[in-house]
Every structure is written in C-alpha cells, then in structure tokens.
Design goal:
Distance between the termini: 55 Å
Number of helices: 17
Largest sheet: 7 strands, mixed
Helix content: 40-55%
Radius of gyration: 42 Å
Number of strands: 23
C-alpha cells in the first residue's frame, strides 16, 4: 500500500496533474466571500469605443494623449500607468512628442511599458524601449508581458524579467515608494498568482472621452490611474479565473488585477516542490497509518471524503496563507489507494470463495481452477500430474461415537498434516467435501506418488489419534492415486481415475493406497485411454 504514497511524492515533485489543479484553482476564485473587504484604489481610464467615436480612431495624436494625461494630473492622482507603447518618434509631428513629454514631466509619476518580444525560448526577449525623450521623463518602466499557462489562461504575473519589473510592479513602486527609483526585487517569487477574487464585480472604467470633456475628474483624486486602450477589436482579451460572467479580461484589466494583488499583499505563491513533496507525504502517511486501518472494508465513501479533505486543505491554505498546494498528487494517490484496496478485497473474496472454511485448504472449486494452471506448467516442463484422493476410514462411525465437534477437529488435524506435506507454490492440498481430501502434485518422477502416499499414511499413524469404532482402534485413511503422464487430461478424467483407485483401496481393507491408475493422452487426438497397474 505504499504505492499511493510514492505516486503522491512523484506527482508533487513533477507538478501533478496540471489540468485538474488548474480547474480546482480557478473554481476557488468564485467563492462568494473571498476578498469582499478590499476596496481598490485603482481607476481605469479607458480609451474605449465611445472615446474613439468622439475623438477619432486609434492611434490618437500624441497631443490628444498629452491632453488626457494633463486631465489626470489636474485631478491629483498618486501615480499613472500609461499602458501605451511609445517606442518611436512621430517624425511628421515632433511637436506632439514634445507636448507629451512635457505632460509626463508635469505629472512626475508616469510609468511607461516596455515591449518584450520572445523570438526564441532559449534566448533573452527583445526589449522595445520607449522613445528616449519619453523614457527620460518617465518615473518608472516595466515590461508589459502577459504570462499564460499551457491552457492559455492567465493566472500569474512575472514580477521581474531580466533587470526589469513588470508594468504593474513598476506602477506599484511609484504609488507606494515614489522615492525608490532602484526597483530592486523584494524577495518576490518568480511567479505571482493574481488574486482574481479581490474584485467581485467587473471594474467600472472611466471613459477617456469623459475626461477630455471635463467630466468624472473629481473621483480620480489620490487614485492610481491606469490608462490604455480597451476598445473592441483593438485590445485583445485573455481568459482568466475571474469571477466575472465570461472570465475574459483585456490587458489593462489584467494590469489592474495584478496591481490590486500587490497593493493588498494577497499575491498567491505556489508551494515549491520540496514543500509540496513534504505536504503530500504527510497527508498520505496520515491516510495510510491512521485512516486506512479502520475503513478498508467500507467502500468508496471514505476515499471520497478524504479527497474532499485534500481539496479543502488546498482551499484553506489559499484563503489563509495565500499559498497554493495543488491537490492532484493527493487525489491521484487516493484513487490509486481505492483501486488497490478494491483489488485486494476482490482477491480476498475470491480466496474465501475458493477456501474450505473448516480446514483453510483449497476447496474443490479452487482445486479445479488451479489444476488448469498446473496443467499448463506441467506441459511446459514436460512433467506428469499426480492426483491423490484421501478418505478418512469409517468417518461416519467416528462422528457417531465421538460427536460432530470431535469430527471437525479430526478434519482440521488431517488438513494440517496435508498442508505440511505439500511443497509451497507447486503442490496443492484441498478438501473436496465431507471426509474426502485431495493432493495435486507435479513432477517428472512418477515414482514420488507411491512414496508420498506411504509418507501420508505414516504421518497419520504417528499422530496416534484414537478411533474406537474402527477395527484398527485408531484413525486411518485410504488413498487413491492417478497419474496423467503427459499432463494433457482434463480434471474430471484424472479425478475419476483416482476415485477408482480409492475405492479399490477401501475394498482391500482400508488404511492403504490403491493401485495406481496411469493415463496418457494421444499427442494428436488427445484421447483418454487408461490402464491399471496392480
């Protein structure tokens, strides 16, 4: 039963079943109480469809962007994230570049994005830096890279790429630590899990058109403003675990969600492999040592309950410590545990069905089944099959004289003698019913049949069990022997031959073995001729 533990450790070390972990991870952001107390200081100023309809199609002139930035500056905001790539000068209108740079300087807290292009996963990304005059006036720079998991869903943000912070982290630094221009990492993990549960309802943006027309300026005071394009067909949408109706968010909304996570200090860390291995090991050891002993015979329900506990454990860690422990290693191990236990119970039931309850020996049904296995093995090794039938002499008289309880004790004693006589793993001792027993041997030397029968008679005699209703005054048996020389006979034919030998032994005074019946099937026709050796 340590296979489930090993599976949990391996999956924990190599990442588990990502599709299952991702589904459970996403579902937890839809829990209704998570993050309700947080009030976001972030306002999105959206260059939306209404703005483009009023002020012209995108891209806007840099004078218009400068006017928008001045409106934001006049509102008295804490910091501005201008999520617009400004990597080239406007050759046809240098005045617009000058005005935008001056607007950035007047604000003094503008963060600009750096574009990153991955040409090859093995090489560093290509950096698209802002135009030099804009970069000179920017209070901070950050990469605008959006991290997607293998299924295309955005769940994490990379706080640092190379020497540059992410765009949201740069805005965070400017809003919280405006005097800190070094932008050095502060012990953050390589990936920050975005807490999409912070914002329960879709964020209501302020339209850039309204600001340019002098409306909705007052609500921006002392806020952190993110400016960017959200118009349909221009701003691409990404799938997220967001609790919104569709879960789709544009790039500006993703930056806001990441910034909210940083501001609230609720960024989620996936436990590193060593901690995952430790947690999975502790959980499975608890299951193996404490729980399994009391529920092995109770079916699927305990496993389902323990699976629920493992999922709840991951949820509690996420909600209380902002740590994500993927539950799939434990779930997979519990499924394997249930499967293993079920197989074990089926084998136990099968063994019970094929075992004589009084003596613990194989019963007739199991003997017939094992005969087929031994027959194939004997054919392969060119061995002969030997069947010995034993019948306790005058057993009815024994029961009448000593009682049925004493008769059961005799049956158990004979069963133990037979069990000790056979070779483990090759020969089979069984009780066929009543006082009749059988032993199936496989050997290339048929001479062992007579030797084996003599030894059984001697072993039983040496027990000295009394039988006053028998002419011998002690317990004895009669034995019939049949040999299938080329191991090609069916069980019924071999049994009938041994039974004839047994009755011959009884007819000749009992306490002996009868004449050996030998059988040989024709190698081609597989007929069953028999002959008797006297």
């Amino acid at each position: 039963m340590f296979a489930p533990l090993l599976l949990a450790v391996v999956l924990a070390g190599f990442g588990g079943l990502s599709w299952l972990d991702d589904a459970l991870y996403d579902a937890q952001f839809r829990w209704p109480t998570q993050g309700d107390a947080y009030e976001s200081p972030i306002v999105i100023v959206a260059i939306d469809d209404a703005s483009l309809a009023t002020h012209g199609r995108w891209p806007w002139t840099r004078e218009r962007v400068a006017d928008l930035l001045d409106k934001v500056t006049d509102a008295g905001v804490r910091a501005v994230g201008l999520d617009i790539l400004l990597i080239e000068p406007n050759i046809e209108n240098p005045e617009g570049d000058r005005r935008l740079a001056e607007a950035m300087a007047r604000n003094g807290h503008v963060v600009l994005p750096i574009g990153l292009i991955h040409k090859d996963k093995t090489e560093a990304p290509l950096e698209l830096m802002p135009y030099a005059p804009f970069m000179a006036e920017a209070a901070g720079l950050g990469h605008a890279l959006i991290e997607r998991d293998g299924d295309g869903v955005v769940r994490h943000s990379k706080p640092w790429t190379g020497s540059w912070p992410s765009f949201s982290l740069a805005v965070f630094d400017q809003a919280v630590f405006p005097a800190d221009t070094t932008h050095q990492p502060r012990g953050m993990p390589a990936l920050l899990g975005i807490d999409f549960g912070l914002v329960r309802q879709p964020r209501a943006p302020v339209s850039a058109s309204d600001l340019l027309n002098g409306r909705h300026i007052e609500p921006l005071r002392d806020k952190i403003v993110l400016i960017g394009v959200t118009a349909q067909g221009i701003a691409p949408l990404s799938a997220t675990p967001s609790p919104g109706p569709s879960g789709l968010m544009n790039g500006l909304e993703l930056q806001a969600a990441t910034l909210d996570t940083l501001l609230s200090r609720t960024y989620i860390q996936r436990l590193p492999p060593p901690y995952m291995i430790l947690a999975a090991t502790a959980f499975m050891l608890m299951w193996l040592v404490v729980v399994m002993r009391s529920i092995q015979s109770r079916g699927l329900l305990p496993h389902l309950l323990t699976m629920l506990v493992s999922v709840l454990l991951s949820m509690v860690l996420l909600w209380t410590l902002d740590a994500w422990l993927p539950p799939s290693p434990m779930l997979a191990a519990l499924v394997l545990s249930h499967f293993t236990l079920t197989l074990r119970q089926l084998r136990h039931v099968e063994d019970e069905a094929g075992t004589d309850p009084l003596t613990g020996l194989a019963n007739r049904r199991r003997l017939a089944s094992l005969y087929q296995q031994n027959k194939r093995r004997a054919e392969r090794l060119n061995h002969s099959l030997i069947l010995l039938l034993l019948d306790i002499d005058h057993f009815k008289k024994y029961n009448d004289h000593y009682g049925h309880q004493a008769g059961d004790e005799v049956l158990r004693a004979v069963g133990k003698i037979l069990e000790k006589s056979v070779r483990n793993g090759t020969d089979i001792a069984s009780r066929l019913g009543g006082e009749e027993f059988a032993i199936l041997l496989s050997s290339h030397d048929v001479g062992i049949a007579e030797e084996f029968a003599e030894r059984l008679l001697l072993n039983l005699e040496q027990t000295g069990m009394p039988h006053e209703a028998s002419p011998l005054g002690r317990l004895s048996t009669s034995i019939g022997i049949a040999i299938d020389l080329n191991a090609r006979m069916d069980f019924t034919s071999l049994y009938e031959a041994a039974d004839r030998s047994l009755y011959a032994a009884k007819n000749h005074g009992r306490n002996r073995f009868g004449p050996i019946e030998t059988l040989r099937a024709h190698p081609d026709l597989r007929t069953t001729p028999t002959k008797t050796e006297n």
